[in-house]
Amino acid sequence: MNTLMKDIAQATGFSINTVSRALRDDRKISKRTRELIRAKADAMGYIHNAIAANMRCLQSKVIGVISKDSSNPFFAEVVRGIEERAREHGYNMLLVNTEEDAQRERDYVRLFVSRHVDGLLVVPGYQCQENLQLYKSLSIPFCFVGRRVQGIEGHSLLHQDYESQLEVSSYLIANGHRRMLYLAGPENLSNSADRLNGHLKALENAGIALDPSLIIHTRGHIEEGYASVNLALNRGIRFSVITCFNDLLAMGALKSLSENGCQVPKDVEVFGFDNLYISQFMQPSLSTVDVPKFALGVSAVDELLRHIERRDLEYKDLNLETRLIYRGSTLNRGL
Amino acid sequence: MNTLMKDIAQATGFSINTVSRALRDDRKISKRTRELIRAKADAMGYIHNAIAANMRCLQSKVIGVISKDSSNPFFAEVVRGIEERAREHGYNMLLVNTEEDAQRERDYVRLFVSRHVDGLLVVPGYQCQENLQLYKSLSIPFCFVGRRVQGIEGHSLLHQDYESQLEVSSYLIANGHRRMLYLAGPENLSNSADRLNGHLKALENAGIALDPSLIIHTRGHIEEGYASVNLALNRGIRFSVITCFNDLLAMGALKSLSENGCQVPKDVEVFGFDNLYISQFMQPSLSTVDVPKFALGVSAVDELLRHIERRDLEYKDLNLETRLIYRGSTLNRGL
DNA sequence: TTTACAATGGTTAACGTTAATCCTGGATAC
DNA sequence: GTATCCAGGATTAACGTTAACCATTGTAAA
Predict the structure, then answer these.
(1) Averaged over B264-268, what is the pLDDT?
(2) Which structural domains are found in chain A, ordered by start?
(3) Beta strands in chain B (DSSP E)
(4) Which residues make Cβ contacts (< 8 Å) with residue B212, sequence separation at least 6?
(5) How many Å separate Cα B162 from the centre of its chain?
(6) Residue B168 vs residues A37, A302, A326: alpha-carbon distances, Å
(7) How far apart are CA A25 and CA A22, in angstroms?
(8) Is residue A229 over pLDDT 70?
(9) What is the pLDDT of residue A335?
(10) Disulfide engineering: A330 pairs with which of A77, A287, A324, B243, CB 3.0-4.6 Å?
(11) Residue B17, CA: closest nucleotide via C1'?
């Protein structure tokens, strides 16, 4: 049987009332009594019953995080930022993964509401009507991390997806590339659309007609980067650079190029997106867009806590800055 | 204000009792009534209050997972296995990360107990007396994933750390290597010790005297693999193969070797451990020990649920099988 | 007609903690 | 000597759901 407050009260002779107050650092309890009760609680192995407490009072000091995929290094770093910052503010983080399943996303939102978290950070998956409705009716503070949900304005923490890809593609065009293979991300995801649009805008700016065979849609997995480039090479599609929705695709692309005897960056240049920690260890190391992943998590917590503390605050989108990183997978142009 | 059962009762005309039973699929409620109540609950946006329910009844259908580090791809795959299997059994998984901090590990154990999870899966960090005491006094079912805790017998799901490293090192010795650089993992961690011991045993079996300069201790991070090999090369330490505590170290090693003009596997062979998904995408692809990460998560859930369902069951350690995978970072010997 | 059962309702106690309210006795201040 | 303050206690209601128990109605079987 677990130790309860009433057991501690019995053991120390104080009332259950005083025990509760002592453990909560209520100022009405003298230091001596408080320490005495604390010591006894520790000795008896007392663990506070958050469920019962939560029943009475509003806050749980827990924020729920719904991520996409634990094995995606991008979100792993975001989650680290969230967890660190939450702890700094005295909150705990509880994490679940949707694997991009909309049904699961809904289930988890309900799980967290059901278990009374104080707020919710979500990496939303594909758009769907049911989820939109759920978010619209959500009664606790929430923010979207790294992605938007169409129909819910102001709740998103974003990074410069459109702007960065525009910059990357423009840079490549400025350096003479005309046939650029673009490995796109999952459709129906705000990032994918934003990044792809940046790429298309760069083409348009340069007056380059779009060749549809140079856009390959993927779900953003590493093995698809490999397979897509294999496919493109087998089909005889010509290109002088591959620019990718994310670093994972770029890594897959590197492997395919290497196996097909294409030298990077001499024959084909490769550009990623995200700047995963591991990208610098690829051979060649990957040129990419640095997305501030840890900072994204930190900002998300800050923003969420603002809304937890002041429920009437208006929501507004935030757009974090990115920067281009040139490494071994592109030609060194003496930047 | 959130919708409560009493609101649904009021709206449908049924008693709060019947509503509760209908939502819980109690057989005493007719299908017609149940569906009617369900529909109304959905329409009113009712979300079950797990906190209140948990107060009354014992189980929460939630298992807590305390992992090491969200940005370590090894545990990410284990977590995927846990989450999938838990869902198959109607359980939810809540995850936290300790970043190998013993204090945090303790805090999180208490958090989960405090929030009434039905069971706990833990990737335990460094041994320490306080944590040992905590586990000894823990009143809910728990298992350790991938590591042991000295003093707590029978609670661990392991993989063949000792046996596999013994096999790797023996294989390398059989192929003529005498000076093998070993990049060891964090001290005070059961895996590190097991794997290192396997290596030492192989040396002993072959009658090779241990050269302490060939053992480098690290915390298992990729950048340490890079730095350690740089250091060894700078110091003029001679070796013909590098065998590593994990794949991350091996990846760092690959980068250092490449930058120092050593060809892999011609000049130096490299062996990893874990078989991370990404390891096959390295250049050269990494020879390694395949640890069944997903299966480890699955087994952990199965084992934990057995103990959740039958609290009197005796605990016993499980040791999952591994296998060696030979890829491009070692010489192809026509296996 | 009697018996039995299924579907439902009502009532009530319980889970462990918190917090509000009121009370007491002793110490300190004026 | 009175007023004030402080540590602490006692009591009680509340949080929302569950579950046990008993009662009621209507229908089907014996």
Answers:
(1) 96
(2) 5-48 (no CATH), 62-159+293-322 (3.40.50.2300), 161-291 (3.40.50.2300)
(3) 62-67, 92-97, 119-122, 142-145, 156-159, 180-184, 215-217, 241-244, 269-271, 288-290, 318-320, 323-325
(4) none
(5) 17
(6) 55, 48, 38
(7) 5
(8) yes
(9) 56
(10) A287
(11) C9
**Shortest distance, CA A226 to any CA of chain B (angstroms):** 9
Please give the share of chain B, as a percent, with pLDDT higher than 70: 99
Q: How many CB atoms lie within 10 A of CB A309?
A: 12
Q: Phi, psi at residue B328, to the nearest 5°?
A: -70, -15
Cβ neighbours of residue A333 under 8 Å, at least 6 residues apart? A175, A326
**Residue B97 Cα, gap to closest chain A Cα (Å):** 8
Question: Which amino acid is present at B124?
Answer: P
- A211 pLDDT tier (thresholds 50, 70, 90): very high
> Is the model's pLDDT at B335 over the cut of 60?
no
- Closest Cβ–Cβ partner in A51, A108, A251 for B115: A51
Interatomic CA distance for residues A184 and A198, integer angstroms = 11
Cα distance from A37 to chain B (closest Cα, Å)?
A: 18
pLDDT at position B15 is: 85
Q: What pLDDT, on a 0 to 100 scale, did the predictor assign at position B302? A: 98
* Among candidates A48, A76, A252 on the partner chain, residue whose Cβ is nearest the Cβ of B70: A76
Nearest to B87 by CA among B313, B311, B305, B320: B305
Could B80 and A73 be called an inter-chain contact, meaning their C-beta atoms sit closer than 8 Å? no
pLDDT tens-digit readout, B57-105 = 888 999 999 999 878 899 999 999 999 999 999 999 999 999 999 999 9
Q: Which residue is nearest to nucleotide C10 (CA to C1')?
A: B15
Asked whether the beta carbons of residue A282 and residue B283 sit closer than 8 angstroms, the reply is yes
- Model confidence at B27, pLDDT cuts 50, 70, 90, reads low
What residues of chain A lie within 8 A of the CB of B98, using their CB? none
Asked whether the beta carbons of residue A51 and residue B251 sit closer than 8 angstroms, the reply is: no
Q: Which of A50, A113, A254 sits opposite B114 (nearest CB)?
A: A50
- List, in order, residues 6 or more apart from B84 with CB less than 8 Å away: B294, B297, B298
- Choose among A47, A73, A93: nearest Cβ to B73: A73
Q: Which residues of B touch A71 (CB under 8 A)?
A: 73, 76-77, 79-80, 277
pTM for the full model? 0.94
Instruction: Dig out the tokens for A51 from the structure.
Output: 């469920």
> Is the pLDDT at A26 greater than 80, yes or no?
no
A258/B222 touch (CB, cutoff 8 Å), yes or no: no
> What is the arithmetic mean of pLDDT over A134-158?
95
Closest CA to A189 of A166, A217, A223: A217
In angstroms, the CA B276 to CA B222 distance is: 13
User: What's the gap in Å between the CA of B208 and the closest CA on chain A?
Assistant: 33
Q: In terms of Cα–Cα distance, which of B223, B296, B305, B316 is closest to B74?
A: B296
Predicted local confidence at residue A85, as pLDDT: 97
Structure letter (DSSP) for residue A280: G
